[in-house]
Amino acid sequence: MRMRGDKIKKTEEEWRNELTPEEYAVLREKGTERPFSGKFTDTKEKGEFLCKACGNKLFSSDTKFDSGTGWPSFDKAIPDAIRYRIDTAGGTERTEVVCAKCGSHLGHVFDDGPTDTGKRYCINSVCLEHGNKKEK
Q1: For the segment 23-33, what is each residue's pLDDT rounded down to a tens digit?
Q2: What is the pTM of this model?
Q3: Which CATH code for domain 2-130?
Q4: Residues near 120 by beta carbon (within 8 Å), at least 6 away in sequence
Q5: Which residues are CB-contacts of 102 (< 8 A; sequence separation ≥ 6)?
Q6: Where in the chain are the domains?
Q7: Which residues are catalytic?
């Protein structure tokens, strides 16, 4: 593993060895989990949600809401925790959300959120850990 500044750089072989097949498929290959199948879809636990790949703090439970979409949804990310990319896969343009520290795919953000931010970060549960675990 190489670190560049505070960014993590690993080979895909290293990621494949560290992540489960499902985690790898979503985090590294931009997959998605089935709606309503993730362990954090309905959780109300307080605390922080971290990147499953690197431990980077991404979202606070205070920003989580029930969007009814089948994935954990948040209206705001922790400052500087994520980056955005244009995603044109599937024939439509969406905004992909990736971890700022390791570049792993997390989900997408939409401008239809019900709070004053107007945002809905639709994030795969498999990409998240809950709690205050040490960064990897």
Answers
A1: 999 999 999 99
A2: 0.90
A3: 2.170.150.20
A4: 67, 69, 73, 74, 75, 109, 110, 111, 112, 113, 114
A5: 7, 8, 10, 51, 53, 54, 56
A6: 2-130
A7: 122
- Cα–Cα distance between 124 and 104 in angstroms, integer? 12
Q: How far apart are the first and last CA of the chain?
A: 11
Among 110, 122, 125, which residue's Cα sits nearest to residue 68?
Answer: 122
The per-residue pLDDT of the chain, averaged, comes to 91
Amino acid at 53: A
Gap between the Cα atoms of 84 and 42, Å rounded? 25
* Helix ranges (DSSP H) in 19-71: 21-27
Distances (CA, A) of 32 to 6, 37, 58, 131: 27, 11, 18, 22
d(Cα 11, Cα 37) in Å, to the nearest integer?
29
Task: Give the chain's largest Cα–Cα span.
Answer: 42
